[in-house]
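Dear colleague,

Following up on yesterday's call, I've attached the two folding results inline so they're easy to grep. Please treat them as preliminary; we haven't cross-checked anything against experimental data yet. The first protein's sequence and structure tokens come first.
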Amino acid sequence: MLEILSFMFFTGGGLVMLFIAAFAVTWPQRIAALLGAIGYGILGFLTVESMSVDVKKKKGADKNVILGITLISFALSYYALVSYIKNYFAPLLLVGPGLLLGFWIFFKGK
């Protein structure tokens, strides 16, 4: 259940960031949104891959990679959304659930 919920929020965050990248006014906004969308897309595929029973990987390395990509993607996405929307609270509602799920995977995931 954790992996399915994570996949939904990571891909949803990636789609929001692609929307911001398409309509951003400045190049830093556009680049940050595009990199954030790529990061959230990678996180979505990593969570789907972790559901696979065929592939046996080291758990610690996976969790550290997921946490690192989550933090980087959140920071880039938060910057892009804050500079686009000109609000500090709304971006937390849009990309905050992905950050919380990244922490959840890191601390309690398999």
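Below is the second protein, in the same order (sequence, then structure):
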Amino acid sequence: MSEVPRQTDCKVCGRAAKRTVTAPHLSATGSSAFQLVDRAARTAHEPDVVSRLPGQGRKPQRFTSNPLHAKLPRS
């Protein structure tokens, strides 16, 4: 990096342009892959608060004792 000139010609317009050092891939922070990695890292220290255990809270299946309902097609 020390051998790179601090100023170079612009490839588009040909005028002098200063070189700057920036962080790479800052535009990738909005991608779904970055969000997945960020969410996984965050849950290690800040787990989500849940109101019930997974799989609970389902409504029980309704049961009818009407014999006519037995003749209905099942889906």
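For the second protein, one point worth flagging: The mean pLDDT is 81.

Best wishes,
A.L.
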